[in-house]
Amino acid sequence: MARPPARRNVDFFCAVIIVGLLAGVAGLATTTVLRFVEHLTYHYTFGTLLTGITGSSPVRRALGPMVGGALAGLGWWALRRGAAVPPLADTIARRERIPRLAWGGDALLQVLLVGSGASLGREGAPRQFAAALADWGTAWLRRLTARDRQILLACAAGAGLGAVYAVPVAGALFSARIMLTSWRPRALGAALITSSLAVAVCSAATHDEPILDWPNANVSFELTGQALILAPVALAVGLAFTRLMAAARPAKQLRTWVLVPALGGAGLVMGICSHWWPELPGNGRSILTVGLNSGLTLSAALAILALKPLLTALFLRAGGAGGMLTPSLATGAAAGSALVLAMNTVAGTHLHGPTVSLAGAAGVLAVTQGSPIWAAIFVWELARPPLWLFFLFLVTATGAHALKVVATGRGPTRSG
Questions:
Q1: 415 pLDDT above the threshold of 50
Q2: CA-CA distance, 107 to 198, in Å (whole number)?
Q3: What is the mean pLDDT of residues 234-247?
Q4: End-to-end alpha-carbon separation of the chain, Å?
Q5: Alpha-carbon distance 385 to 394, whole Å?
Q6: Percentage, residues of the chain above pLDDT 70
Q7: Under DSSP, is residue 338 helix (H, G, I), strand (E, B) or coil?
Q8: Which residue has the higher pLDDT, 60 or 344?
Q9: CB 296 within 8 A of CB 337
Q10: Main-chain phi, psi angles of 54, to 5 degrees
């Protein structure tokens, strides 16, 4: 393979720096707007979304998500009537023209929907917005090839993900392994630089702190062997989640006025459910938080395990758009919490709840995304527990993914 010309390499390096900085701006902007919408919806000033939900009135819990869903539906009705909003991964893979304005508008509506309580991931918005900004910011570099631009757009998407969750390594590997399915040095190096820069820029909002607080607790190395118990559970939950989302997603993007009542109704259902399970609204961070704090009962864990994917499917069916990473992650955490609570109660074991909860999250994420190494790194970076627990998460993720390959014959998949 011929070495790229020196001038093209200079252009590519300049583009990498530009993409990293713009992806950080995208992450910072979407995080700021998301927090504003959350605080406005549930009328709170300090603390997490879960704090705001538990402190809000019953009427606000029900009507806030309904109004937010209806407004997002109105926005999508107006946007989709005038422009198509193609999927991010497919557009980059096929090297098609980037719809900058459509992706930017769609990202803003995703933030509105998720911020008002929808059960969808917030990572979809910064990925799209970062890719749109990257395409705009590097358009003047004429010596870049179509492959160079494909790498840069994939790096922008991964860097946007890394920025909002403060996970630089996971953001880089998302670009290289899931978006590009490549270990080539050019792609991997660009992904690491862009993700690191984006996380640094977005640290103005995230303060470069882990999204989840790992509890100070002694955990045993014996858990590594027990992590394999989770693999079949993670496989079953991950496959069920994937198939449910595939069935719920409309064959064609909804573009009619029905979006308004459909998303408003989905928001109302979410609001009603949050009266009993305030962990349900949002992308799933609340579920991960209570799982780490051992704050779930067995009945609550089972209810969340069933309701989280069902509510996510409801918003998809209603025409909403958003990420699937954190809803699947939260579903896996609920499965791990349910398993550890059942075993500790029925069998009299003493499994460590937070560890098993995160291991379940890693296993389900490995099944839905087809990349166990990335899943383990992403989960570890979210909480940054003791380093050796990364290997426990990797055992669960690898075991679940291996069972998936045996059961379905399918390897890696590309995220939407």
A1: no
A2: 17
A3: 94
A4: 31
A5: 14
A6: 93
A7: helix
A8: 60
A9: yes
A10: -65, -25
